Amino acid sequence: MTVAEMAKELSLKPLVAADETREVTGGYAGDLLSWVMGRAQSGDAWVTIMSNANIVAVATLADPSAVILSEGVLPEENVLKLAETKGVNIYMSEEDTFSVCGKLAKLL
Predict the structure, then answer these.
(1) Strands 13-16 vs 26-29: parallel, antiparallel or unpaired
(2) pLDDT tens digits, residue range 21-66?
(3) Which of its termini does the chain have fewer beta carbons within 10 Å around, N or C?
(4) Does domain 3-107 have CATH number 3.40.1390.20?
């Protein structure tokens, strides 16, 4: 499924839709950035509550298809601008991390 299809199915709000045609091949949930760097796979949809600029750095290294900020978390504008320049998809959900992950797992 593409990022756009996932976003529609999960009712995600696009914050940065850099490449909605990317394929979502898995999922990963985590907030410890060093842990995510070493364990998330390219193509995963990464669910987190972290919202600082480091999520963009981790996303460029781990190459998830999208970052999903759960629990209504919104990053600062500078984070969104950085994500745009790096081509990182960022979406937001009002739902808690557990709910987002459960719904994502059913889609995959």
Answers:
(1) unpaired
(2) 999 999 999 999 999 999 999 999 999 999 999 999 999 999 999 9
(3) C
(4) yes
